């Protein structure tokens, strides 16, 4: 595909993640100059005033549900890409639980092409681990990897690969080409088919069937041992419990190849949200008590949890607006992720912006093997970046979303930090 060459862009007066100030000249899709006088001799450059703004490498989301094909009433690749760009992302991994499931090379290439047609972020398909997400027969892992889509991340997300033998085979298979198996850790026997929130005192009071953190922890414990046994890489999706953080800490100390993500909602929201039975807060894994939230923040701060991933999960009104027990699981996340991380980990936490760049760009790009993303802001690197106003206070309005769906748990909340511009290969994909 041929792209028109974007005009040169001068990002003036930005603060780099390490706190230093610089001008960045972007030309031919790359960082052409980076210093205090980058504008010298480039009168043709369009100027982006970045005074007071932090510049980060474009964000990379390891866990996005774009719903196309199959549920274009909830989201399309185009609307999800627009939401991603508005959230500061330049690349997203599109989960495989679409209809049909992304379990063939053709299906993966179709998602890749839809992403290219939308043109706002790089959409990298995740391949299913098993055919139809059924948990039994391995999908075409090798063919998906060798296809134009170059799939390296495989996940049955939405469902847990409960059969240890299947998980072992998947790990062995992807090892040959350096792939990674991303697990939705939820033991179906321990969690039960109707579980819809955290199992605890509150679920009893509300009369809702719950599932305990141990249903996640036992799967993660099993999977890290399978990763050790096979010498392959496992990634744990949306960690929600303190016990899982302990398992991960132990596994990493052993040198086991495991990485893990936490979602913005699990970093800030707790079971307290459930008292009003609002299905917006129904999500898998469920919101947990504040002890878990604090352990997740500590795990992210000390590197036990590697990345923040959104698990952006749009749902149409007719799937979400039901009694709590009957509503779909999942909540939006792309447009608010950076602000939630800025609020919980920077404004009220131990993170610098270099840490944000690490957990939302550099490390997710490395886990997914996305060469052109998560690169340092340096001369010669692809011009993928986001400009952030670090002190802006923004009250979230779900109706201002680019997503087609409205299941936004942050509606009406005021967060610190706002995305002002997103740039993909030198082209502005979002400006606010
Ligand atoms: N997180 C959710 O509650 N739902 C996700 C599936 C998933 O991430 O497990 C979805 O596809 O809607
Ligand atoms: Zn999941
Ligand atoms: Zn998910």
From TrEMBL:
It catalyses: (S)-dihydroorotate + H2O = N-carbamoyl-L-aspartate + H(+). Zn(2+) 2 binds at residues 157, 184, 238. Zn(2+) 1 binds at residues 63, 65, 157, 311. Binds 2 Zn(2+) ions per subunit. Substrate binds at residues 65-67, 97, 284, 315, 329-330. It comes from the Bacteria. The keyword Hydrolase applies. It holds the Pfam family DHOase. Pathway: Pyrimidine metabolism; UMP biosynthesis via de novo pathway; (S)-dihydroorotate from bicarbonate: step 3/3. Keywords: Hydrolase, Metal-binding, Pyrimidine biosynthesis, Zinc. SUPFAM superfamilies: Composite domain of metallo-dependent hydrolases, Metallo-dependent hydrolases. The keyword Phosphoprotein does not apply. The active site is at 311. Its EC number is 3.5.2.3. PANTHER family: ALLANTOINASE. Belongs to the metallo-dependent hydrolases superfamily. DHOase family. Class I DHOase subfamily. Catalyzes the reversible cyclization of carbamoyl aspartate to dihydroorotate. This is Dihydroorotase.
């Amino acid at each position: 595909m041929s792209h028109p060459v974007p005009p040169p862009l001068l990002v003036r007066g930005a603060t780099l993640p390490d706190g230093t100030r610089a001008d960045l000249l972007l030309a031919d899709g790359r960082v052409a100059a980076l210093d205090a006088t980058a504008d010298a001799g480039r009168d043709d450059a369009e100027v982006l005033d970045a005074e007071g703004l932090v510049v980060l490498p474009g964000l990379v989301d390891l866990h996005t549900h774009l719903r196309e094909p199959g549920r274009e009433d909830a989201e399309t690749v185009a609307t999800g890409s627009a939401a991603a760009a508005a959230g500061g992302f330049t690349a997203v991994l599109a989960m495989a639980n679409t209809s049909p499931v992304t379990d063939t090379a053709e299906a993966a290439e179709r998602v890749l092409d839809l992403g290219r047609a939308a043109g706002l972020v790089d959409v990298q398909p995740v391949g299913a681990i098993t055919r139809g997400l059924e948990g039994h027969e391995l999908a075409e892992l090798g063919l998906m990897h060798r296809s134009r889509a170059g799939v390296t991340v495989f996940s049955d997300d939405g469902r847990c690969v409960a059969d240890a033998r299947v998980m072992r085979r998947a790990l062995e298979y992807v090892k040959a080409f350096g792939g990674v198996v991303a697990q939705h850790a939820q033991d179906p026997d321990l969690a039960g088919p109707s579980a819809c929130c955290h199992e605890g005192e509150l679920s009893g009071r509300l009369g809702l069937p719950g599932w305990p953190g141990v249903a996640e922890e036992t799967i993660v414990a099993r999977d890290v041992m399978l990763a050790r046994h096979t010498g392959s890489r496992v990634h744990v999706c949306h960690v929600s419990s303190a016990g899982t953080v302990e398992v991960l800490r132990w596994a990493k100390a052993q040198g086991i190849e495991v990485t893990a993500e936490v979602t913005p909602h699990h970093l800030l929201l707790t079971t307290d949200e459930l008292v009003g039975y609002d299905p917006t807060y129904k999500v898998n894994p469920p919101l947990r008590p504040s002890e878990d939230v604090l352990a997740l923040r500590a795990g992210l701060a000390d590197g036990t949890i590697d990345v923040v991933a959104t698990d952006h999960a749009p749902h149409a009104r007719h799937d979400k607006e039901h009694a709590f027990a009957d509503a779909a699981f999942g909540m939006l996340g792309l447009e608010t992720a950076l602000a939630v991380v800025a609020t919980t980990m920077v404004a009220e936490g131990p993170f610098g912006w270099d840490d944000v760049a690490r957990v939302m760009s550099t490390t997710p790009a490395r886990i997914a093997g996305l060469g052109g993303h998560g690169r340092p802001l340096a001369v010669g690197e692809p011009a993928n970046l986001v400009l952030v106003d670090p002190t802006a206070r923004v009250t979230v309005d779900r109706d201002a979303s680019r997503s087609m769906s409205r299941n936004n748990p942050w509606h009406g909340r005021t967060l610190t930090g706002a995305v002002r511009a997103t740039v993909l290969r030198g082209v502005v994909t979002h400006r606010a």
